């Protein structure tokens, strides 16, 4: 459920205090745990360290992010990958193919140099 228009967007007062009157280029990373705070136009250009439960993910705020929540840009779950033995075999074949392609390219370059 969205916040009522009568109340306006929720922006953490501590965050506004941290960025008020500061230059985005000179200010370093601003750490915050306020994932539910909305991004306002005043925040554009600042780099926020948004806590994901374990680490602070650094996010550069752009104009297209205004109106979204800070937590949307700092994911709390980490996707590793699917598969087990079969996936490893596919990745090994792919790596071998890349190595073979690199060696072939290197050989053609050496031939051109000799000519």
From TrEMBL:
Alphabetical UniProt keywords: Coiled coil, Ribonucleoprotein, Ribosomal protein, RNA-binding, rRNA-binding
InterPro entries xrefs: Ribosomal_uS19 (IPR002222), Ribosomal_uS19_bac-type (IPR005732), Ribosomal_uS19_CS (IPR020934), Ribosomal_uS19_SF (IPR023575)
Pfam families: Ribosomal_S19
Coiled-coil intervals: 85-112
GO-annotated cellular components: cytoplasm; small ribosomal subunit
Biological process per Gene Ontology, one example term: ribosomal small subunit assembly
One Gene Ontology MF term: structural constituent of ribosome
Alphabetical list of PROSITE patterns matching this protein: RIBOSOMAL_S19
Keyword RNA-binding applies: yes
Function: Protein S19 forms a complex with S13 that binds strongly to the 16S ribosomal RNA.
The family this protein is said to belong to: Belongs to the universal ribosomal protein uS19 family.
UniProt name for this protein: Small ribosomal subunit protein uS19
Organism: Candidatus Nomurabacteria bacterium RIFCSPHIGHO2_01_FULL_42_16
Lineage of the organism: Bacteria, Candidatus Nomuraibacteriota
């Amino acid at each position: 459920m969205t916040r009522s228009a009568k109340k306006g967007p929720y922006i953490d007062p501590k965050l506004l205090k941290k960025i008020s009157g500061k230059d985005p280029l000179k200010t370093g990373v601003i750490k915050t745990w306020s994932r539910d705070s909305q991004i306002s136009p005043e925040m554009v250009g600042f780099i926020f360290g948004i806590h994901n439960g374990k680490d602070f993910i650094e996010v550069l705020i752009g104009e297209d992010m205004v109106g979204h929540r800070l937590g949307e840009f700092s994911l709390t779950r980490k996707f590793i990958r699917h598969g087990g033995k079969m996936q490893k075999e596919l990745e090994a074949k792919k790596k071998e193919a890349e190595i073979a392609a690199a060696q072939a390219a290197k050989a053609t370059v050496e031939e051109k140099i000799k000519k």
